[in-house]
Design brief:
Helix content of chain B: under 10%
Number of helices of chain A: 0
Radius of gyration of chain B: 14 Å
Low-confidence stretches of chain A: none
Radius of gyration of chain A: 13 Å
Largest sheet of chain B: 6 strands, mixed
Largest interface: A-B, 25 and 23 residues
Mean pLDDT of chain B: 91
Order of helices and strands of chain B: EEEEEEEEEEE
Order of helices and strands of chain A: EEEEEEEEEEE
Distance between the termini of chain B: 41 Å
Number of helices of chain B: 0
Oligomer: heterodimer
Chain lengths: 114, 112
């Protein structure tokens, strides 16, 4: 059981470049989300989805797009990378939101924007 | 605004010691409190607490919630070097998005 799989593990971008962080889960979870983790800031929610075809913004959505065409996949797109987007990105999924079921996290993508 | 505060932010102890990590919260509509352990990669789930005064236990780790005083503690007894990690506390308030508000974490280092 692979759980939540994120690719790539590491990425270096130049300012202005775009890229997509991939996230896939094989647990048939309805709920998926993207977080970024910065030193001293904890985990902050970027975007989330409660099911295929449904996405919404979290706490820090600017500069990021998401889509959810299937239950399994939830890619995160950086439209025009900026140094402020240097961070570790985690994808997470659960059967339902919050109290119904805890989040399962992927291993993260460490992104550096120069 | 929902707030979760963890203390201490970092802690260094020796193997065999017992540690207590703290998590206090201010949220508008509490539903549950969750503890995660984060080593080098993904946070992994430890406990979910919804009822006050009921201890959750797993091996050397235990946690309890006080909904009146709005805090939770995570205890680790007979610590081992493998317990070194960042411990994250999150509160589900059910409001907007996924309703989860994370604290900044406690970085625990166990010295041999």
């Amino acid at each position: 059981n692979a759980g939540v799989t994120q690719t790539p593990k590491f990425q270096v971008l130049k300012t202005g470049q775009s890229m997509t962080l991939q996230c896939a889960q094989d647990m048939n979870h309805e709920y998926m989300s993207w977080y970024r983790q910065d030193p001293g800031m904890g985990l902050r929610l970027i975007h989330y989805s409660v099911g295929a075809g449904i996405t919404d913004q979290g706490e820090v959505p600017n500069g990021y797009n998401v889509s959810r065409s299937t239950t399994e996949d939830f890619p995160l797109r950086l439209l025009s990378a900026a140094p402020s987007q240097t961070s570790v990105y985690f994808c997470a999924s659960s059967m339902g939101q919050g109290y119904r079921s805890p989040l399962h996290f992927g291993n993260g993508t460490r992104l550096t924007v120069t | 605004e929902d707030k979760v505060v963890q203390s201490p932010l970092s802690l260094v102890v020796h193997e065999g010691d017992t540690v207590t990590l703290n998590c206090s919260y201010e949220v508008t509509n509490f539903r549950s409190l969750l503890w995660y352990k984060q080593e080098k990669k993904a946070p992994t789930f430890l406990f979910m607490l919804t009822s006050s005064g009921i201890e959750k236990k797993s091996g050397r780790l235990s946690s309890i919630l006080d909904k009146k005083e709005l805090f939770s503690i995570l205890n680790i007894t007979a610590t081992q070097t493998g317990d070194s990690a960042i411990y994250l506390c999150a509160v589900d308030s059910g409001g907007g998005a996924d309703g989860l508000t994370f604290g900044k974490g406690t970085h625990l280092i166990i010295q041999p």
